[in-house]
Structure formats: C-alpha cells, structure tokens
Amino acid sequence: MAYFKHPTAVVESEVIGDGTKIWHFAHVREKAKIGKNCVVGKSAYIDEAVEIGNGVKIQNFVSVYKGVKIENDVLIGPAVTFTNDLYPRAFSWGEDKIIPTVVRKGASIGANSTIVCGVRIGEYAMIGAGAVVTKDIPDYGFVFGNPARLKGFVCRCGRKLQDKEKDSEKVILKCPRCGKEVEIDRETYENVIE
C-alpha cells in the first residue's frame, strides 16, 4: 500500500494514489477514486464513485456525495457538505436523481459551506466560510454569503485582484501581492456585487 490509512479509517476503494493520507474515522466508499498526495481528514465521508484529483486537501468532517468530481489542488475546508439531489425525500431515491457537481483546479471552499448540486466551481475560485453555493462560480471568482454572491476575483495566491485596465469586451485584473494578471470577460466582471 503506497498510501497511509489510519487504523480507524474504512477504505473500500482500490483506487488511492501514492502519498495520500486518510485519517481517523474517515470512510472512503467503493469505486471512489482519490489521486496522489491528497489528505482526507478526520471523519470525512467520500461516497462511492466520487472522483478526486491529485494534491487535494479535504479537511475534517467533510461530506462528498456521489456525483461530485474534484480536480487537482483543491482545498475543502472543515465541515463542507456537497449535495447530490435537488428534490430529496427519505422515501424516494434512485441513481437518476443524482445531479453532478464539478470543482475545478485550485479552487478553495471555506469551512461549513454547503454546495448545492449541479454547480461548477471555477478554477482558483474562492468560497468564503459558511457560504451556500447555488449557482456556478466563474474562474477566479470570490463568493460568500447565503446564497453565495460574486464579490470580486482572487489570484491563484488567494489575494483579491484589483482593476488594471478595461475595454469593451474584457477586463484585466492584477494581484497586488504577486503581480499576476488575470483576464475576465466584461459580462462576468459586471456581475460583481459590491
């Protein structure tokens, strides 16, 4: 076994990447796929057939249900919950009710957030703690609140991007910390709620 599994963890999957660590009381269901160098925190639940890329950090008490795909280098804060059914009932369940959700490369999801199924969280997006995400988040988007609303854009390093130049179709934003520039289309930019 090229990954670490705490003795109290339950791992039913056979697809766990090298260097991954699965901690106390975590449960990884059959057919789940977890990439290399990931961390699955205490009491996390990874449902069957969930796909997790490389370098993903899943903090304690996170629930990732069937239908969720998490790309590389994503951070999921403590007690985040992903859903997979828009019309849940205790007496009605079937595979046809699963609505897929995608978390793109480098995104960060703050503690105690709820991700309602069917959304796409863009590359390097950042979700503030306690947010309830009900809509897609653009690449580099910064959202928080209930429901989560677009409040600006963040750099790969996590700092809020600032305006540099604007034209009729695009906006160039720049990071005050690392100097990286990010191009955002004007329509997306104009959806920011201050």
Specify the structural class.
Answer: mainly beta
Helix count? 1
SSE sequence, one letter per element: EEEEEEEEEEEEEEEEEEEEEEEEEH
How many strands in all?
A: 25
- Uncertain ranges: none
Average pLDDT for all residues:
96
How many domains comprise the coordinates? 1
Binned, the helix content reads: under 10%
- What separation lies between the terminal Cα atoms? 50 Å
Write the layout of secondary structure elements.
Elements: E1 4-5, E2 10-11, E3 15-16, E4 21-22, E5 27-28, E6 33-34, E7 39-40, E8 45-46, E9 51-52, E10 57-58, E11 63-64, E12 68-70, E13 75-76, E14 81-82, E15 101-103, E16 108-109, E17 114-115, E18 120-121, E19 126-127, E20 132-133, E21 141-144, E22 149-153, E23 162-166, E24 170-174, E25 181-185, H1 186-189
Parallel strand pairs: 1-4, 2-5, 3-6, 4-7, 5-8, 6-9, 7-10, 8-11, 9-12, 10-13, 12-15, 13-16, 14-17, 15-18, 16-19, 17-20, 19-21
Antiparallel strand pairs: 21-22, 23-24, 24-25
